[in-house]
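**Protein fold record**
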Amino acid sequence: MNGHTQYGLVVCAYVDDYLKGNIKKHELTRRDKEEDRMKHVRVNNANIEPVFFAYPDNAELDAIVKKYTANAPEYDFVAELDGFGHTFWIINEDKDIARITELFDAMPSLYIADGHHRSAAAALVGAEKAQQNPNHRGDEEYNYFMAVCFPANQLTIIDYNRVVKDLNGLTEEEFLAKVSANFTVEDKGTDIYKPTGLHNFSLYLGGKWYSLTAKPGTYNDNDPIGVLDVTISSNLILDEVLGIKDLRSDKRIDFVGGIRGLGELKRRVDSGEMKVALALYPVTMKQLMDIADTGNIMPPKTTWFEPKLRSGLVIHKLV
């Protein structure tokens, strides 16, 4: 994708590792969405949609992967829809498979990067099947679900931005004045402005772009949640100024994946559909892993991973 390549290991993850928290999450799941995906697994009796995991960087795993990717692939194609390439190699030497298993066994945790609902659904269906089987042994295929595991240093988290329908009864001048209580506001004119680092935000309003920099004292660098730009913007702009209390349910706000570019934010505001847009600097993998390790949960719509994994390229049958 755009010159970026990442190598993942397609594996079967153990259901109990998910249920016991050894596979760590950073987002909350909704039961209705879990059930929707559980139906998909039950009806197909297979995992067709891969889950996207990250693991701590490991030089020995990198070396094993490099050994196989130096050879001709089993399968190679570029998707017409987005132009992203997908290449497959099969690791078929028993000693390498055994060593990979040992290296993963030595890791304290894996981290769900993308696919919290898919992970929950796959694990819950596996647990269901275990309960329903009077001769359950623990080594049946339903005790595992399909995941693709990538080293953390190869992953790219891109921005996940916000657009809002109105200014909560404020004029543009009143809105900017309220925002300036907690942010240094700079007028950047009509050219698209992209956030330059953590705690710097891009605002589009009334045909102009603004740089917003959170003032010292408005966030806590020692709090893994409080330090996140999504938390800062949610508390100090969306809640305090615009009156948006619940990002999950408020109909005045929408979310735009950074893959669409900041031009999409401008388009939605210029069209009159939305009144204001806010662009955030992407979360880092270290932040994500720190939050998962401390048992915390990120605010909604924080991470957007690209490239997305294709469904159906690899299938794990549960029987």
